[in-house]
# Entry
Amino acid sequence: MARETFPARLLRKVCLSDSAQCYHFEFELVDRPAFDYKAGQFLSAVAVDGNGKSQTRAYSIASAPHANRFDLCVNRVEGGFFSNYLADLAEGAIIQIHGPHGHFVLHHPPVDAIFVATGTGIAPMRAFTQALFPPSGEDHSGGRHIWCVYGTRHESELYYREYFEQVAAAHPNFHYITTLSRAPQQWTGHRGYVQQYVGKIVEERQAAQPSLSPATTTPPADATPQFDIYTYICGLNNMVSEVRNLLTEHGWDKKQVVFERYD
# Structure
C-alpha cells in the first residue's frame, strides 16, 4: 500500500559548497500548521523521474521541529536522479514527502553525548544541536557536555561551520571539533579521520572520570543498563562501523551507540 504523501513548498535554497555542490533547503508544509517529528528523524521525498517511474529517497531532517517547517542538506550526485531533482528546484517549488520516520533520536533526559558525522551526515547533528541549544537562547542540554566531531575531505565541505562555531562560543559545554582528511598545507586545524578524535575524547573522559567509564563495572544480566554518555553516528558505512568498533573496544555497550548509515 502506497504511503500518503503531503506537499511541501521550498522557501529558501542556499549553496553551502560550490565544490561539493551541497545545498541547504528550507521547506514549509502546505496547508498544515505543524510537522510533528523528533530531532534526528528522516523523511522520504517522492517524485516521478523522466521515465515516468515514481522514485523515493530518504533524507535526514537538518533542523529541530519548528512549526510546519523543516530543513534538508543534500549533495548533488552525478547521474543521481533525486539529488539533482532537488538541487535544480527553484524557490516556491512544491515537492511531495511522507514521514517522519526513524529512531535516530536523542536520549531523554539529556546525557553527555558525542555526535560523530562526515559529509551530509551533519544534518541530523544540526537538528540535535538546535534541539539542545534552541536559537531562542534557551538551554535544553541540562549542562551535559556535547562533543560534535565532524570530518570532511576539504575545508569548503564543513557544512554549517559558522552555526556550530557560534553555538560553541555561546555554550561552554558544547565542543565543536573538525578534521580534514585531505587538508592543505596551510590548514592549522585537525587532520585525519573522526575515529582518532572520538578515541581521544573517550580516553580523556575516562581518565578524568574513571567512575563514569562504561567499562568500570559489569551489571547483572537482568539489570537495566545505566549510561551517562551516548554516541550518535551518521555517515558512510565504513566510518560508522569503525567508530562502533572503537567504542566497543573501550567497553561501551551497544545500546550506548546510536547510528544512521546513508550508503
